[in-house]
Amino acid sequence: MITNTINLNLADTYMGLPKLENDSFDLCIVDPPYGASSTKSWSYGNKEKLKGFGGEWKLTNEAWDLLSQNDSFTGTYFWLKELKRIIKPTGSIWIHSTYHNSGFVNVCCQLLGLEIINEVVWYKRNSFPNLSGRRLTASHETILWVHKGGEKNRKYTFNYEDSKAYFSSSDLLKEPGKQMRTVWDIPNNKTKEELMFGTHPTQKPLRVAERILTIAGVKGGKLLVPFAGSGTEMIAGLEYGMTVYGFEINPDFYELACKRLKHYLEKSTRLLY
Ligand SMILES: C[S@@+](CC[C@H](N)C(=O)[O-])C[C@H]1O[C@@H](n2cnc3c(N)ncnc32)[C@H](O)[C@@H]1O
Question: What is the CATH number assigned to the segment(s) 6-272?
């Protein structure tokens, strides 16, 4: 899918990233396969919903997410090395993870000299219950915010005043006018509009990407999304006023992302006229 502001490729990011130019993007949001899937076939339906939101609970059990630890480490190293080359010195990279891959991401950043600016904890108040009763209920993910300048060359964009002013009625921790903390209280539900063209098994709520853009977005700049999924981060980028570029390897998810992006474009055109 190609428009003036969108370039979404049905392609393998490992093949696509090496073709992108040095220092050519202002921001990157990476939501990679976590390697969190199990081969267990059970799933769990739950009628519990937050008011105003749609969607059922579903456990992740996806072929593309079944990575060996070795693949996870070498893959992470590969795309982080590429992103270090592609992102501008004034830009930054945000990487989603859970404990399955967060160690790899952290070690690879350190090996590559990508300075970690912050580690954000995305607290999911309404997280999926632990069915076995053998573990605590996993109710957070981590997001690393990194830049390539190292500690002597910190040029990355930080929209400090915007981050202070940020307010979301669903976040019980963030007060408007106070500095943004590293714990974000964002329920994992999606709105009906976010799910209107179908579901992706690990679709993020738009509100997570919107907050990242508030902090590090560049109006009129370029956003790169190496693992596009259903297109959440690309939609948030468009909404912020960036041009967006992404890769998605799965044709079904690619179609879903195209539908969502097209819908967004049509909606924003309608609002203009
Ligand atoms: C964690 S999901 C991203 C979900 C996305 N944040 C959303 O909200 O919809 C990761 C996506 O990466 C895709 N993927 C996995 N390996 C890939 C590769 N080598 N190249 C491009 N996409 C890939 C998967 O098909 C999956 O849709």
Answer: 3.40.50.150
